[in-house]
Amino acid sequence: MWGYDFRSGSVMSPDRSEDIMTYCRTRPWISDYHYRNVISHRAALARGIARAGMTAADRPSDMLVLWGGVADGELQLEPVYSTQATPRVPEERGPYRITGIGSDGRTLWALDFMPGEDGHGGRHFFFMVPIEPDWEDSLDRIVLTGPEGQVAVDREDERAITVVTERGTGRIRAILRDWDGVL
């Protein structure tokens, strides 16, 4: 990746120098690739946490797992579940929004985002939102909107999943749909 050395005012050729992320030896510099990634990551974290009214915690707490995507031009919002984890909020704003709606119609939270691409023409997202104590009674539905339309899940959603996690780490080992109870 081409770069620019502000100290010398010269353009850095990828053939003659390495950026700092590749453990350069004599003339350290940061390529625009790594600079953009660092700045984007830091801005997304600050923007996402502030926008969602959340604080990043070092220790896991109860999180609402929101996941889905776009496949064949249709929005998909998977069944919602909770787990012990740390927050994971959107890194990039975009034309998609996932919203938690209370039983009184009030917006409890909303996240704007750009879903990631899966390399096969689909898009996906996976977020973890800290659960507020009153949500068990007040959270009525979760709505996903985007250029393709709108889809929602609520307490009446009959789709069922079972999430198998590793004891101790919480690492997801399997997500089972319509599980019959036998592993």
How would you sum up this structure, described in words?
- Strand 12 (161-165) and strand 13 (172-177) form a beta hairpin.
- The chain is built from 2 helices and 13 strands; from the N terminus they run E-E-H-E-E-E-E-E-E-E-H-E-E-E-E.
- The chain folds into 2 domains: 3-50, no CATH class; 56-177, no CATH class.
- Helices cover 13% and strands 41% of the residues.
- The protein is mainly beta.
- It is elongated and about 65 Å long.
- The chain has helices at residues 32-51, 135-138; strands at residues 3-5, 10-12, 61-71, 74-77, 81-85, 96-102, 107-113, 116-117, 123-130, 139-146, 149-154, 161-165, 172-177.
C-alpha-based Rg, rounded: 21 Å
Number of strands: 13
Low-confidence parts, pLDDT < 50 over ≥5 residues? Answer: none
Overall average residue pLDDT: 79
Amino-to-carboxy terminus distance: 49 Å
Beta-strand residue percentage? 35-45%
Query: Which structural class is indicated by helix and strand composition?
Result: mainly beta
H and E order: EEHEEEEEEEHEEEE
Instruction: Give the overall silhouette.
Output: elongated
For the biggest sheet, the summary is: 5 strands, antiparallel
Treating each run of at least 4 consecutive H or I residues as one helix, how many helices?
A: 2
Helix percent reads 10-25%
Number of domains: 2
